[in-house]
Design goal:
Helix content: 25-40%
Number of strands: 20
Number of helices: 16
Length: 492
């Protein structure tokens, strides 16, 4: 077909003994927006790099714009745009210097480059930051700059690998606005994502699991609930197990914050916020990058001292008894907080020992961790060899070994597939039902619907706090993400 610009026939790619892709066949048409959806380790990145002629097939063939990915690799890489998960920016160069570097790399003439830089910066909202070093930009701004650098030579085909991973909803919306503007010129976009709402924007979506493409069609062809359709196609995930500690009576506040402020020099990261988190509650702390979420959590965990205000966690004054607080909380960071060179069982033993558990307690609770993570029989595997979803559940189990009263989860589902995300939130609900308070941050506001209450913050100030449904009702029933944008627009 003359309108087909990407042809993949029987693509397989092996790394040592591991097959990252097996027998993938697909076509992408000119002007199409095509999504590859799957979990970490499903083969999405290998597919993207194969399309960009960065990786050669172990088996099969890839053709891009009529060029063979092995024989014509240099011509393919010169013609398309590629945005990898790593930003590919030069941190010691300014925004403008990065753009000019990529323009020169693609031999864009000076006057043309200048006009394109002005247009891209205006559209990306970065015009005021041209002289700022790339390393000093927020995560969302770095992503937008990386996309603009990839578009500076106006390629006919754009390939993006998880471009919105770890990006707040406002920056995610702006990134998609740039992409949709780019598409108006009949350009082709191939995007890897783990977010269903992004897949729904595309003309077609392909689902990947364990290196195989398990389905490919228009989003509407899968029914009204694309996430449920994908979950039904994937192999059964580990069921949520019983939480490994006795239930507590879910009464009273597990976290009490009054007038919390934290400054760094003249900069106010947190500006007088107050809220409570009840025992047995799932509480969402939501806001854009730089809103003060991380600073707030670090104060609650006793890592930072507040500049003003009162903070009590598990009934303990955090300022006066920070060490006592740390023994009553569990924390799971976005980067999993696991030791990748240790085995599954060794990680469990290490964290159990760090929390002061004896050997018998570690063995007893390890059984729950292995069941919840779906890792029975895999205790000897190195943690680095696990998929992102399995690492995520192992990290959660390790954070729960000492039976904390309060659990902090920082972006716990970033980069995992929808089915794994659902399983994880089932576990969160079970933990809360035991009487444990759960405070979670997320940039994916669809999953924030699973919280009992959510607090939106921006520039260190509390904008709203209520149950998700009540917030939606207050704004005419719009999705929670739209509530978020309206709150930001109305903020002084």
């Amino acid at each position: 077909m003359s309108d087909v610009v990407i042809v993949v026939n029987g693509l397989s790619r092996r790394f040592g003994e591991r097959w990252a892709l097996r027998g993938v066949t697909l076509r992408v048409r000119r002007g199409e927006m095509f999504a590859a959806v799957g979990a970490d380790g499903s083969g999405k990145t290998t597919l993207m790099q194969s399309l960009c002629a960065i990786l050669d097939p172990t088996e099969g063939r890839v053709s891009v714009a009529g060029l063979d990915s092995v024989k014509d690799a240099a011509r393919i890489t010169a013609r398309l745009g590629y945005m990898s998960q790593a930003y590919s920016l030069y941190g010691d160069l300014t925004v403008e210097e990065n753009l000019r570097f990529f323009a020169a790399l693609h031999r864009v003439p000076g006057p043309t480059a200048q006009a394109r830089i002005a247009r891209l910066m205006r559209f990306a909202g970065l015009s005021a930051f041209l002289q700022r070093l790339a390393r000093d930009l927020s995560g969302g701004m770095q992503k937008k700059l990386a996309l603009c650098c990839s578009l500076i030579h106006e390629p006919d085909i754009m390939v993006l690998d998880e471009p919105t991973l770890g990006v707040d909803p406002r920056s995610r919306r702006e990134l998609w606005r740039i992409l949709e503007e780019y598409r108006t010129a009949e350009k082709t976009v191939v995007i890897a994502t783990s977010y269903i709402d992004e897949a729904e924007r595309c003309d077609r979506v392909a689902f990947f699991d364990a290196g195989r493409m398990i389905a490919c069609d228009r989003p509407a062809a899968f029914g009204a609930d694309l996430e449920a359709a994908l979950a039904a196609m994937l192999p059964a995930r580990a069921p949520a197990a019983v939480v490994p500690f006795p239930s507590r009576t879910p009464t009273g506040d597990a976290i009490a914050v009054r007038g919390l402020a934290r400054s760094f020099g003249a900069f106010k990261a947190v500006d007088g916020i107050s809220f409570e988190v009840r025992r047995g509650e799932v509480f969402g702390l939501l806001g854009p990058n730089g809103s003060g979420k991380s600073t707030t959590i670090r104060v609650l965990c006793g890592i930072l001292e507040p500049s003003a205000g009162e903070v009590r966690v598990a009934g303990i004054d955090v300022v006066r008894q920070a060490e006592a607080v740390r023994g009553r909380i569990g924390y799971m960071s976005q980067k999993f907080s696991l030791y990748l060179d240790l085995s599954v069982r060794e990680n469990i033993a290490f964290f159990g020992g760090a929390y002061g558990l004896n050997r018998g307690e570690i063995e007893e609770r390890a059984r729950w961790v292995l069941a919840a993570a779906g890792l029975q029989g895999s205790e000897g595997m190195l943690t680095r060899s696990l998929s992102g979803a399995l690492r995520q559940r192992l990290a959660l189990g390790c954070a729960l070994l000492h039976q904390p009263e309060v659990l902090f989860l920082d972006e716990p589902t970033a980069g995992v597939d929808p089915a794994s995300r659902r399983t994880f939130w089932t576990l969160i609900a079970a933990i809360a039902r035991s009487g444990t308070a759960v405070l979670v941050t997320t940039h994916y506001l669809r999953e924030a619907e699973g919280c009992d209450r959510v607090a939106f913050i921006d520039r260190g100030r509390l904008l709203a706090l209520d149950a998700p449904q009540r917030l939606r009702d207050a704004y005419g029933g719009v999705p929670l993400e739209e509530v978020f944008f309206r709150l930001l627009e109305a903020a002084p």
